[in-house]
Design brief:
Elements (H helix, E strand, L loop, with lengths): L6 H8 L9 H13 L6 E7 L12 H20 L2 E7 L4 H9 L3 E4 L6 H13 L1
Helix pairs in contact: 2-3, 3-4
Length: 130
C-alpha cells in the first residue's frame, strides 16, 4: 500500500498465475485489515472477478457453494463495518445469481464482454470516487 507503482511492481503482476481455488472471503479480510491501517478520507474495495467465489478444489455440492457465497458476503459486510466501500465487477455472465446474494446492498456489475474492461474501469472509478 505504501509503494508507488513502478516497473518492479508491474513485473510482480506479470508473475501472478492461477492456482486451484478462488477464495474471496479471506482475500477481502486481508485487504480490509491492510486498508484499516491507512489514514485516508475514503477507502474503496474494488473486487474484479472472473466468477464465483470458489473454484476447483471445492466439491460441487450445494452446501459448499453456498458456504463460499455466504463467507464472501460476510467478509464484505465486515469490510463495510470497517469503513470500506465495496464494489464488485465480474465478467461471469451468470454473475447475477450469486452476486445478488453476496453483495446484498453493495454495488456490483456484471460486464457482458471482458474486452470492455479497459473502458469500463475508469468510468466505474470516476462514479465511485466523485
Amino acid at each position: 500500500i505504501a509503494e508507488d507503482f513502478n516497473l518492479e511492481i508491474a513485473k510482480r503482476f506479470g508473475r501472478i498465475n492461477p492456482l486451484h481455488a478462488t477464495r474471496m472471503g479471506p482475500a477481502i479480510r486481508h485487504v480490509t485489515a491492510k486498508l484499516g491501517q491507512e489514514q485516508t478520507r475514503a477507502k474503496f474495495l474494488f473486487l474484479i472477478s472472473d466468477g464465483r467465489p470458489q473454484d476447483r478444489g471445492y466439491s460441487q455440492e450445494d452446501s459448499e457453494k453456498a458456504y463460499a457465497v455466504q463467507d464472501t458476503r460476510m467478509a464484505l459486510i465486515e469490510a463495510r463495518r470497517a469503513g470500506l466501500q465495496p464494489f464488485c465487477l465480474t465478467v461471469d455472465k451468470e454473475g447475477n445469481d450469486y452476486l445478488r446474494a453476496m453483495m446484498d446492498d453493495f454495488s456490483y456489475e456484471v460486464l457482458a464482454d471482458v474486452t470492455l474492461l479497459p473502458r469500463r474501469l475508469p468510468q466505474l472509478y470516476k462514479r465511485l470516487t466523485f
